[in-house]
């Protein structure tokens, strides 16, 4: 009789499975948190899509390459200029360091101003040649916003050359210069052999020392 009473008391005092905290946390709680997190990230990824890269990129197999031929042509021509903002009016003065034909000055220049992070603030507009090397156009740029980083590209009418600049806007003037990466000085490395630690003198150094002796 004593054994039966103890067994029945154990059965009566044991809590239901759903009241066990181990079941609530690990069996129900954690999977529920994972499901809610997955739903949130799916909604977030659909709502906030990644912005498309706006540049001259192309794919060869599985490798991405950037086409810099437009930048190199602008460097070879010595194209440079100054862009001035006066309200919604944009004026651009184009110059070439090397002699060029009058055909080098296109009737129109296409300008692309891309925000660093927000594609909704991108601006595309056209500059029209009004005289000689002077171009003018209009842009709806909010001059009261906080100065943030923009990428500015200027292309000629045939999209043969391009000038690029990174500038915080709003600004009054933006100066464009050819990329210095195409300079011959930056494409050749100086001879650093004599500056190495415990470097062996080269043949010219030996001959010079023998002549002095």
What does this structure look like?
By secondary structure, this protein is of the alpha+beta class. The protein has two domains: 2-46; 65-182, Immunoglobulins (Immunoglobulin-like). It is 29% helix and 31% strand. The strands form two sheets. The protein has an eight-stranded antiparallel beta sheet. A two-stranded antiparallel sheet has the order 1-2. A hairpin with a 2-residue loop joins strand 3 and strand 4. The longest helix has 27 residues, at 21-47. The protein is elongated, with a radius of gyration of 34 Å. The chain starts with a helix and ends with a helix. The model has no long low-confidence stretch (mean pLDDT 78).
């Amino acid at each position: 009789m004593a054994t039966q009473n103890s067994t029945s008391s154990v059965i009566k005092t044991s809590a239901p499975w759903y009241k066990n905290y181990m079941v609530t946390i690990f069996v129900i709680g954690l999977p529920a948190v994972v499901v809610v997190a997955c739903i949130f990230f799916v909604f977030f990824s659909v709502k906030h899509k990644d912005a498309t890269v706006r540049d001259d990129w192309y794919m060869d197999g599985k490798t991405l390459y950037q086409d810099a031929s437009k930048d190199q042509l602008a460097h070879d021509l010595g194209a440079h200029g100054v862009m001035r903002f006066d309200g919604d009016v944009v004026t651009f003065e184009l110059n070439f360091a090397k002699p060029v034909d009058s055909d080098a000055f296109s009737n129109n220049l296409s300008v692309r101003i891309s925000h660093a992070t927000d594609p909704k603030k991108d601006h595309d507009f056209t500059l029209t040649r009004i005289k000689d090397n002077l171009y003018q156009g209009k842009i709806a740029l909010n001059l009261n916003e906080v100065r943030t980083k923009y990428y500015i590209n200027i292309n000629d009418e045939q999209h043969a050359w391009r000038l690029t600049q990174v500038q915080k806007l709003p600004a009054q003037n933006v100066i464009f210069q050819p990329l210095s990466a195409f300079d011959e000085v930056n494409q050749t490395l100086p001879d650093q052999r004599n500056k190495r630690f415990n470097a062996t003198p080269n043949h010219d150094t030996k001959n010079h020392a023998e002549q002095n002796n």
